[in-house]
Structure formats: structure tokens, C-alpha cells
Design brief:
Number of helices: 0
Shape: globular
Structural class: mainly beta
Order of helices and strands: EEEEEEEEEEE
Number of strands: 11
């Protein structure tokens, strides 16, 4: 089992920045990626960005390219999402996830473990 705990959400004005953190504990050796997903009211959960245990990352949502950066600290089992130039359409519950799907990493259905989520609200 893997436990994931997110932090860092909050309310910010458009153009602002937030940094989300995800602390992983438990049997993390069985996972090959961690990532951030988000879900806005009335919308499906979508992948934002994922990062691979062996190195490298993928940006899942075109809308965040150039604004969001995913990073990890393997020594401390932490994953971060730096969000800059935030827009009102970025408002959502952000979830940290982990899995070992062997592919389709941006698909939320393939993640095995989920955090409880942290709310991000961007006002115009």
C-alpha cells in the first residue's frame, strides 16, 4: 500500500503561483510513476503531469504547458507541482496519484493510489 498526502493548495488571483506538495509513504517501490491530476466541478478528472521513478516526466494537459512544472525528491518520497501564471480555468481539486500501469500514465483510471486532494481556486 502507498499513502499519499497533498498540501499547498489555496486561493490565489489570476497570474499568481502556487506550489503543491505530495508526500508518499508505504511501499513506494512498487510504483513506477507519480503524478498530479485535477477535477473541476462537473468535469472528468484529467491528468496534469506525471513523473517517472526512473527519471523523465510527461505533461498531460496542453493547457498547462509552459506554466506548470512537476518535480520529485526521491530521497524524501516527495513530488511537487509548481504552478505559475495561474488562470481561473485552473480552479479544481488537485490530486496526487501513483501507480505501476506500464503505460497510459496520464489516464486517471490507471493510477493505483490516490491522495485526498487539495483545492486550488484561482479568481479573476
Amino acid at each position: 500500500q502507498v499513502q499519499l498526502v497533498e498540501s499547498g493548495g489555496g486561493s490565489v488571483q489570476a497570474g499568481g503561483s502556487l506550489r503543491l506538495s505530495c508526500a508518499a509513504s508505504g511501499y513506494t517501490y512498487g510504483t513506477d510513476y507519480m503524478g498530479w491530476f485535477r477535477q473541476a466541478p462537473g468535469k472528468e478528472r484529467e491528468g496534469v503531469a506525471v513523473i517517472y521513478t526512473g527519471g523523465g516526466y510527461s505533461v498531460c494537459a496542453d493547457s498547462v504547458k509552459g506554466r506548470f512544472t512537476i518535480s520529485q525528491d526521491n530521497d524524501n518520497n516527495m513530488v511537487y507541482l509548481q504552478m505559475n501564471s495561474l488562470k481561473p480555468e485552473d480552479t479544481a481539486m488537485y490530486y496526487c496519484a501513483a501507480g505501476s500501469s506500464g503505460g497510459g500514465y496520464c489516464n486517471s483510471r490507471n493510477a493505483n493510489y490516490w491522495g485526498q486532494g487539495t483545492q486550488v481556486t484561482v479568481s479573476s
